[in-house]
Design a protein that fits this description.
The protein is an alpha/beta fold and 392 residues long. The chain has helices at 15-24, 40-50, 68-71, 87-94, 107-118, 138-148, 159-167, 184-192, 196-205, 225-238, 255-263, 279-285, 301-307, 321-324, 338-347, 352-366, 371-391, and strands at 3-6, 29-34, 54-57, 61-65, 79-83, 98-102, 122-126, 153-156, 175-177, 211-216, 244-249, 268-272, 288-290, 312-315, 330-333. It has a seven-stranded parallel β-sheet, sandwiched between helices. A six-stranded parallel β-sheet has the order 12-11-10-13-14-15, sandwiched between helices. It has a two-stranded antiparallel sheet with strand order 4-5. Strand 7, helix 6 and strand 8 form a beta-alpha-beta unit. Helix 1 packs across helix 17 (371-391). The protein is globular and about 70 Å long.
Length: 392
């Protein structure tokens, strides 16, 4: 099977999936991507993994309608229209048996055009949920419904994405699952080499005592950090007899605002961006991972924390919570309900032995979201798409 996967943006977590899918297809996966939109380290990893089968593009054209700086990065608050010169002709030149794309718009439109005009079976990977799409305008929904007739298979990342796709009229018999993944093997290997002595030394280096809570993500309103800090203030005042530390990793337009908010609280430290290959050190000293998002399709930091053996606190607005979080490995709250948020933080004050047990449960649960599982799900989706196209 000859597969062309055309998508302009991804990060490190996708690379092991590309490798495994390439193995399943006997080196017949061709990845088309925009090298200007991803970090150089990711582009290098892809080239090392796929060689000439990784085809970089540049000089993407983009029109933005609306102002992301004013509206934040909430979904459907602004529109990005993207066009990649040379992409369509490259797809046709490669003569794929099946196309893979992600989402309805951006490069997905080019993939869809190839499907409509040349009959190439098309698999769309999809992540969005009803909550993410709560502000979508009717004309966009209508456009998506028109596109559905030309999409052979949609591979969703989880239950909530599946429910949304069905709600706009897609045949559930052509919906598959589990394309989203964390690079659990890489994390496991890094943490295996990060000994207890190394962890203690790193914790001492940072001057940390007691329990460590870890936030990793953008410092923007959508991620719920303001709500976390409000709840953290009350939580730590209630438990002044305990050493509680919140570490914040990441950058964003609102960093200064959050740092000012945190000054009044204490026990909150900001580390800025940490290299992807160094985050394991913070995961290794953390007791609990927190993702207080107000809107996310599938927070990758959740399965990454689970792969590191951490219990996770996340929110009802995180699309992955229905698939990944149970009482055995974490907690789910409404961050817009301050009382509920503080109460949920209070529930994390269980014995270290219990936290370790929950962390082990996290590892077991996330094993079903490995690169191998994701690649096989995508490969099976491609076979289903070819079969559906043949039947039509």
């Amino acid at each position: 099977m000859r597969i062309v996967w055309a998508h302009n943006w991804f990060l490190d977590y996708r690379v092991p999936v590309f490798e495994e899918l390439n193995r399943l297809t006997n080196n017949n996966l061709f990845l088309l991507y925009n090298k200007d939109s991803i970090p150089e380290r990711v582009s290098n990893k892809v080239r090392e993994s796929l060689g000439d089968n990784a085809v970089p593009f540049c000089n993407e054209k983009m029109l933005v309608l609306g102002n992301p700086l004013k509206t934040g990065d909430y979904a459907n608050k602004y529109i990005e229209l993207k066009y990649q010169p040379g992409l369509y002709s490259k797809i046709l030149k490669l003569k794929p048996d099946v196309l893979i794309g992600e989402g309805f718009f951006r490069w997905g439109l080019t993939n869809l055009t190839a499907r409509i005009l040349h009959g190439i079976p098309y698999v769309m990977l999809y992540e969005r949920t009803a909550h993410t799409e709560r502000n979508v305008i009717k004309s966009v929904v209508f456009a998506r419904q028109m596109m559905l007739r030309w999409i052979d298979v949609i591979c969703c990342n989880g239950v909530q994405s599946d429910e949304y796709i069905q709600s706009i009229g897609f045949d559930p018999s052509r919906i598959t699952h589990r394309h989203m993944v964390a690079d659990i093997h890489r994390l496991a290997n890094m943490l295996y080499s990060f000994s207890n002595e190394d962890r203690l030394a790193f914790k001492n280096e940072l001057g940390l005592k007691g329990r460590v809570y870890l936030y990793t993500g953008q410092l923007v309103p959508r991620k719920g950090l303001r709500e976390l800090l409000e709840a953290w203030d009350i939580f730590t005042h209630k438990n002044q007899n305990q050493d509680l530390n919140l570490l914040v990793l990441g950058e964003g337009l609102n960093r200064r605002e959050y740092e000012e908010q945190a000054k009044k609280i204490g026990n909150v430290r900001f580390f800025g961006n940490v290299d992807y290959d160094q985050i394991y050190r913070f995961l290794g000293i953390a007791d609990v991972s927190i993702m207080p998002t107000l809107e996310d399709n599938w927070s990758l930091v959740v399965p990454e924390a689970m792969a590191a053996g951490l219990p996770v606190l996340t929110t009802i607005y995180n699309g992955c919570h229905t698939d990944l979080i149970t009482p055995k490995n974490g907690w789910v709250c409404d961050p817009l309900n301050l009382t509920d948020f503080v109460h949920t933080l209070q529930l994390t004050l269980v014995a270290q032995k219990k936290l370790r047990e929950m962390g082990q449960n996290s590892r077991s649960l996330v094993a079903y979201h490995s690169p191998e599982v994701a690649a096989q799900a995508i490969y099976d989706s491609c076979k289903l798409a070819i079969n559906h196209k043949t039947l039509r």
